[in-house]
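User: I'm preparing a small set of examples for a lab meeting where we compare how different chains pack in three dimensions. I only have the primary sequence for this one, and I'd like the structure in token form so I can line it up with the others. Please keep the answer compact; I'll paste it straight into my notes.
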Amino acid sequence: MTPKRSVEGAAREAETAPSRTAFRRRRGLLRAARGDGAHRPSQGQSEGWSPEIIGAATILGGTLGGILVMHLIMTLLQLRTGSTPVPPEPSVPPAPPPTRPARGVAAVRVVTLDSPDVNYTEYALLEEPVILRGSVLQSWDAYAKWTPDYLASTLPEVSAYTRSTPEFITWHDNKPLEPFVHPSVGEWGVFNTMRNVSSRDALHTAGPPFHYVSDDILELQARFPSVVQDLQPLRPLAVTETGLQVNLWFGSVGLQTYMHYDASFNAFAQLRGRKRFTLFPPTAAMYPWPCLHPHIGHSQVDWRDAHARDRFPKFDSSGAIVVEVGRGDVLMVPPYFWHHVEVLDAPSVSVNVWSDAPAYALLDDAYTIPLPIESNWEASTRVATAAAFLRIVISSVLALHTEDFDVASFAADLYDQRWRQLLDKGYLIVDSDKGRELCSPKSSGVVVDQAKLEARAASLHALFALMGPIAVRQLSLGNYVERVASAVVEPVLVGHFIQNCLGPTQTTEHRS
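Assistant: Understood. Below is the structure token output for the 512-residue chain.
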């Protein structure tokens, strides 16, 4: 679902992360679920590279414990054997077919559990969506207690996103590209309009207007004192102990959340009603918005458009996996799986549990490694050094999974999927002439310290090697490239930087 805590936020790159205060609150939620005080230390946070950070000594931030060690072992096995290890299958009966796979090349696996006391993490790590029935959800007080009448009396009024059309897409605050978005495309108020509405209307009314309620349960406690206790035990559905957040969802029939990914493990529990999920794997060419854009983490493709390939030629709708989630179902959505969600029945009441994926924490660590660029250098030197550094980083990361890699091809695909439509259609206000001057022949001849760049890139290589599936690693690498570029050029020129500075014609002089 498109969350208030979404695919990236103001303080972290991949998706919105709680503040340190919020992390302490999340850990309190975990303690309530576990009955003890155990927790994993929170990851460092970074918005980008300030002038004070650029050029500082290399540091490797964050704690890579627990789940990250497991991913390290799996990655090393993959590097040695050339294949992806498969986590052990949970000890459960064979799965029956899904009730109604509407369309798609693969049916979602449905597992009926003999007992709710299983290791849910095993299912979360399968790297495919799985529906669980007979899970811990059915032992929650909320499962029987949270009827529409009960919710309407306990929460008579809620704050809901409200729109005249059924599809909702998140517009994240304070993204670098926001000042450059053309007014015809949209602005903060268009996507984030909220109104106080009665819960009864939000639960029962078919749009328009369409009401979309998404609330962190910790923020509901003052008005809904039993909300956390009603959802115990929660701990089995959390894979990691950082970024833990639990949201309550309900909304109008027909309401849809736009195709997006979450950089988190997502256990989605349906308490009332039905929803339809349409999913694509991380390998799908979904043309994501740049990570600098307010729509970060969302797809530019309308996957239902029969002519989508006219604008997005690499998109393949045949890869869609469609599944309906009903009362008592828990859908385990793997990190970085693209998903679109539609409310089919009213009242629809859902709860989901997010916890950080390893790649999310690792990318956050990557942002703590200072760039080998000095803030007092001339602009042309900063740009040329950033380009040379990124070519080394891209080569290093691509070499993890293929011997036939091409930096220019990676850059061309990054530009085509994320930037071409925005620039060709005039969705951004940009001086294209200024962009075309980046890394032009007249700016060539800058001398860079190759040894220094390679040493700094080595630290990044170690982090990207742990990021698991190749598609996740490449998406994260694209985000990293955009963020580095935005440290040396205006955010609106990052697309031009990718196209002009990372291609085969980019030239610099090297010294060892």
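A couple of notes for your slides: Confidence is low (pLDDT under 50) at residues 1-48, 50-105, 507-512. Residues 56 and 63 are 21 Å apart (CA to CA).

User: Perfect, thanks.
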